[in-house]
Amino acid sequence: MTGHDWGYGEDNGPLEWYKDYPIADGNRQSPIDIVPAEAVFDARLSPISLSYNNCTSVNISNNGHSVVVEFIDSDDRSVIRGGPLENMYRLKQFHFHWGCKGCSGSEHTVGGKTYASELHLVHWNAVKYKSFSEAAAAPDGLAVLGIFLDGNAVDFKGFNPKCLLPNSLEYWTYPGSLTTPPLHESVTWIVLKEPIYVSEKQMGKFRTLLFNGEEEDERKRMENNYRPPQPLKGRKVRASFK
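Structure tokens predicted for Carbonic anhydrase:
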């Protein structure tokens, strides 16, 4: 398995990633199971502020592992600030993880509960770092906003992710990693408590996509593209709410 060959199958899936990416067994890997009763309310956590009003999407694509929407991140038009973040972070892209028909597909779980899908909005620290690639390798260089998608109906209007946000922005936060190779432990996770709703029809459109396969007979429907929860290893999950 080379850096380009990781995936979600039996031979190249999450249980095999450690062979090429030893950090897969590191101390701050993501996702995790968030246990609400064990999360610590932190009164110092301010509300998060999301400024996506002037959002400019570049393209939407299948990168072989997920559906990805890329954004212009050369300025501060689309940013997240507040919460556990000391600086402003620019929106780089968002992507999804999902299961098979009738299956759950979220990466994070809440008290063992899984959701139909999970949306990740990936931001990088524009104050400290000059490029996304540098940020990905640097401590706490990324801030990822995780949003659960659950059972029945929201319309994905265009590509401004503001329409994907739930009414409440109460959240859990913890130090973690990318959930796909190279699994850098450089992420501040902000996971929203309130899910948004997606229809089975909309999820079905995701499942018509194909994973990357070199040979025609290797091509498989894109589903179950999620990593299971990883050990907490002493980390504390903080909550913005009681």
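Confidence is low (pLDDT under 50) at residues 130-139, 152-158.
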